[in-house]
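Hello support,

Our group uses your service weekly, and this is the first time we've seen a run hang past the timeout. The protein is dTDP-glucose 4,6-dehydratase. I'm not sure whether the cause is the sequence or the server load. Input pasted verbatim:
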Amino acid sequence: MSRRLLVTGGAGFIGANFVHHWCQVYPSDRVVVLDALTYAANRRNLALVEGRENFRFVQGNICDRSVVEQLLTTENIDIIAHFAAESHVDRSILEPAAFVQTNVVGTFTLLEAFRQHWEAKSKPSSYRFLHISTDEVYGSLNPDDPAFCETTPYAPNSPYSASKAGSDHLIRAYYHTYKLPTIVTNCSNNYGPYQFPEKLIPLICINILMGKPLPIYGDGKNIRDWLYVGDHCHALDVVINHGKPGETYNIGGNNEVENLNLVQTLCQMMDELAPDLPVFPSKQLITFVKDRPGHDRRYAINANKIKNQLGWMPSVTIAEGLRLTVEWYLAHRDWWEPLLSAEYQAFYRKNYLESANDR
Ligand code: NAD
Ligand code: TYD
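Update from on-call engineer: The timeout came from a worker crash unrelated to the input. Re-ran successfully.
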């Protein structure tokens, strides 16, 4: 039987990759994207599915209860995959208000509307509300600490992770209080096609292609656990189909890498794959800059639960994933060049030049 999904934030990085995945694997399901089209969104991310009969794009805000209610009813939605969020830590440090609004109030609005919709339909057990969250809610690890598991206490350190933690708690409470069939996934850092240039990997790729400095915060020894976005989408598919309501699943790539090593690898790949780089070898562009305030030192995910209970494991190695990503940014200059807009330049100046002086 075909299903009807509401994908919030589907014009952003992971949401768009998920929409591509779902439309390909389940072509008879209806997919409705609700996205406010903030600076991080791009309608072109959905170009591959726009013409499909059972796809619909709606521009709207998850904080707008009437828009959400109307969509749930008219589209007869049975699954919400909730990606919509303010997602960049540096922006949350500069301007945190939008993070509380979208990530906390927006998630609350969706939960209330979905609860009303589910109750009106006599609480079908097949309904799902999948909340896509982050490993950053668990805080920062020391070098010898065990990786985050689902029972690790929350200790968010940035306005971004605090707002995501708040939304995770609401999701949990709606299962416990109302038995609304919610599930939370907490995932490590994603990378791959369609990622907005402000995040580390696309920023480095694009700055190399433009011959601009490659900013490394602090000593470059912070560690992230990288996961290729296609593997994340596959994990979310498995969780929607087989995950248990009320549960949390951690998703990670088993790929802990220090930032400086990652950037050096990207430089080597670009030197090999990109013709006529403005600065060659590109590692000359590496520049240490002032650290991000409150910069978490290390994230690492223990993904044993999803592996043992649902049979999911990442399939793309970091070397393969980085190569695919570098090749994608090389082949899609027409996608990323327009994103380096006046708004992006203003953020860049504020984050890397003006704020750096205050830190
Ligand atoms: P993104 O910033 O690329 O995309 C977010 C999307 O949400 C954009 O299309 C934006 O327009 C939309 N949006 C923002 N506010 C909205 C609002 N009020 N109403 C409707 N739409 C709104 O983010 P992403 O990297 O694709 O992340 C998606 C989700 O995955 C987020 O919830 C994030 O916390 C989570 N996550 C991301 C990562 C990562 O590495 N990128 C890792 C783990 C979890
Ligand atoms: P980012 O992609 O912003 O993801 P997150 O902060 O959510 O983990 O950053 C990944 C890592 O790279 C993080 O340790 C901060 C660091 N970083 C830099 O060193 N320079 C940069 O210009 C950016 C954007 C990030």
